[in-house]
């Protein structure tokens, strides 16, 4: 918790002012003189936005900083899952070291919070979660990490997984994950009933991966809606990817979005280039909470991605066909306030009393910053400078 005077910044690309920070919180926006001994930074008119939020990633998977991973396999979902589970140790993907690299990269590029799904399966038990927990402790002054207990290999098809999820939640995973109840588990009622039972028992929200497209994904969504109503979990469920909302049926998608808004379901998008994705502008119109994430980066799933939420904003913006400045400002919202709303982060923003978690962006306007993947001269977490010019104050392992 720190004091700092940040001079000559433009909150959300507006009028220039100074930001006074006391005890890690924003104490005032205006014009201030530095007090004796107070740290002072001059932002030279840079834009300031609250900390970027990676609300959907996989810290335990990346090969970032490792030798290049040659991928010569077909892109079938089940195949990607099984290959990773059976080979990650041999390849040397150490969950602690790799999550350090990924998380430090995100922080250096202006992120203040991460929601990471971490694999739980009968081969690894909770060991991957334990690796990411170590990272969370090591980086607690740099970035906040929330962990989703993620049964990537399936729940019903992998007996023993339910017990592991139960244990992970008992030990402190903040969110319960799930995956394609039809496509991966072939037992939607089985998986969803168990997920909702576990979530209610542990009092945690659910964030389920739904790659299922078109009618199949819509069917699963309807099963999720039924269980939200039955368990009183309005406002406590997120659907990640939600590719079914990218289907080419305007009316059907509209009906799904109406129900998503009514049940206050959050949507997480990564702007996946290889499939149809939900329209962030249509979800905005319906006032649905939408966050963004960089998903897996440079892992056994695929070679793309950076630990950088501004880079991801650009991917989401391009995938959504955005052009106007207002739309581009909205994509920045998705990777910041949108993600904070999904994760329900207290004290998020640039108002007096908010956490002093923010990043500077060099650019004229918010749209300009997105399109340029603007440089980030300074990143502040809890009122302390934790990165300069895209380089964190902590070393990469
Ligand atoms: N997009 C995804 C990345 C990793 N695991 C998944 O199930 N999905």
UniProtKB/TrEMBL annotation:
Keywords: Hydrolase
CDD domains: Bact_CD
Domain Amidohydrolase: 40-386
Annotated EC: 3.5.4.1
MF terms in GO: cytosine deaminase activity
Presence of keyword Hydrolase: yes
Record InterPro entries: Amidohydro_3 (IPR013108), DNase_TatD-rel_CS (IPR018228), Metal-dep_hydrolase_composite (IPR011059), Metal_Hydrolase (IPR032466), Metallo-hydrolase_Enzymes (IPR052349)
Protein name per the record: Cytosine deaminase
Species of the source: Rhizobium grahamii CCGE 502
């Amino acid at each position: 918790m720190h004091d700092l005077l940040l001079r000559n910044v433009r909150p959300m690309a507006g009028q220039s002012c100074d930001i006074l920070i006391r005890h890690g919180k924003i104490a005032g926006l205006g014009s201030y003189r530095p007090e004796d001994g107070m740290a002072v930074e001059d932002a030279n008119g840079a834009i300031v936005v609250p900390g970027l939020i990676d609300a959907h990633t996989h810290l335990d998977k990346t090969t970032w900083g490792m030798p290049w991973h040659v991928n010569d396999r077909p892109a079938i979902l089940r195949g990607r899952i099984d290959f990773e589970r059976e080979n990650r140790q041999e390849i040397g993907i150490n969950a602690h070291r790799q999550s350090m690299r990924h998380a430090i990269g995100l922080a250096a590029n202006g992120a203040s919070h991460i929601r990471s799904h971490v694999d739980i399966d009968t081969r690894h038990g909770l060991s991957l979660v334990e690796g990411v927990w170590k990272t969370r402790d090591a980086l607690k002054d740099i970035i906040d990490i929330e962990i989703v207990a993620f049964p990537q290999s399936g729940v019903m098809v992998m007996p023993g997984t339910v017990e592991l999820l139960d244990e992970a939640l008992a030990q402190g995973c903040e969110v319960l994950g799930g995956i394609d109840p039809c496509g991966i588990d072939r037992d939607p009622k089985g998986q969803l009933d168990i997920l909702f039972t576990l979530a209610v028992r542990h009092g945690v929200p659910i964030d389920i991966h739904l790659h299922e497209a078109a009618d199949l994904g819509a069917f699963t969504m309807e099963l999720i809606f039924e269980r939200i109503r039955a368990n009183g979990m309005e406002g406590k469920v997120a659907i990640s990817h939600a590719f079914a909302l990218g289907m080419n049926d305007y009316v059907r998608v509209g009906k799904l979005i109406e129900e998503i808004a009514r049940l206050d379901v959050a949507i997480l998008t990564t702007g996946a280039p290889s499939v149809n994705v939900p329209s962030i502008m249509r979800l905005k119109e319906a006032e649905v909470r939408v966050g963004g994430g960089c998903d897996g980066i440079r892992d056994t799933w695929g070679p793309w991605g950076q630990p950088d939420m501004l880079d991801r904003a650009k991917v989401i913006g391009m995938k959504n066909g955005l052009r106007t400045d207002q739309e581009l400002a909205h994509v920045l919202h998705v990777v910041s306030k949108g993600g904070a709303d999904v994760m329900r982060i207290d004290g998020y923003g640039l108002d007096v009393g908010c956490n002093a978690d923010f990043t500077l962006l060099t650019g004229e306007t918010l749209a300009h910053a997105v399109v340029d993947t603007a440089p980030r001269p300074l990143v502040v977490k809890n009122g302390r400078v934790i990165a300069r010019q895209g380089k964190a104050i902590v070393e990469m392992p």
